[in-house]
Design goal:
This protein has 368 residues and is an alpha+beta fold. The chain folds into two domains: 151 residues, Hypothetical protein af1432, CATH 1.10.3210; 139 residues, Growth Hormone, Chain: A, CATH 1.20.1250.30. Helix 1 crosses helix 7. The radius of gyration is 23 Å and the shape is globular.
Amino acid sequence: MGFSYYVYPGAHHTRFEHALGAMHLMQEVIGVLKKKAVKISQEEAEALQLAILLHDIGHGPFSHTTEAILAGQVMHEEISLEVMQKLNDQLDGALDMAIAIFTNNYPRKFMHQLIVGQVDLDRMDYLKRDSFYSGATEGNINSNRIIEMMVVVDDQLAFEEKSLYSIEKFLMARRLMYWQVYLHKTSLSAEFLLTRVLERVRFCYQNGKEPQTSESLHFFLSQDDMNRSLNNEQLNKFLQLDDSDIIQGLKTWQKDDDKVLSKISSMLINRNLLKIKVQNVPFESNQVEEKYQRLRKQGLSEEDFKFFVFTEVISNQTFMPQDNEILIMDKKGNLKGLQEADAFFDSEELSRVQQKYFLCFPRNKHLT
């Protein structure tokens, strides 16, 4: 959830709880499918639970916020896979089947769809969990109903026709949770400010300064670029990182000799965030330049501007018909795509990627 707790004070839950919750849902699914005569061996049941339990283990501190700056081009899914493979080596191949399911290399495709899909157990758990802890009721989905309606046809995951409205609620809940919670403008301001703080630490290292950090955080921020995949040393260092490394760093950097690092770290710790404007069209260059002028008057150099003023794009998509089609089984046992089964989703607006643009800049009090 990144810095969502800056807006929703109850949202302090972690990925550990989420992983356990997703595994619990997998246990529920296995029970439902077995009752419907879907053959799932004990080994497959165990592998499914292991795959969903470990699916997010590659996330770093503050979730997606620090992913790019710490791990570079290596995505958290790739790190999860690397961790699973290391564990598998230690456990003499006990995770072979779990890894095959996770990477979609197991012949029974519905098993991967339970972990990675438009209506998967990962999303079912985090939507309901995040809704509960944030208090944003829009994400309160009926996961039990969706699970009860799951079927397997030709080793593909499908849903009984009676689940249409529950699936509709699920997809709309995800859309609303993104705009209202995950992409809330205050959370965005905090999360992008954190990336600027870490970029400034790296800038300091590149210019002969040595901000104090934990050993693992120093390892990543003192490097300019990461490999396309993590070697053993990098992976071990990455797994030592958690939110506390970042929080302790921020508290220390408030008193750093680098004025920019000190300022933006203090702003984040004290929740004195940059002002943020969100709109449906890109910001004009003169709007950004206007903010730069205020920084010039404060004596900041051009290379410092990007740490206080920046514009980014955010996007959200309700339904992705081209990606892991949601299959609906009618009363005669025929399979249809969701768009064919429910006219509500036969809409270009619902499948279109919606984009918004935001501009972050200092309030007047930040510059005094």
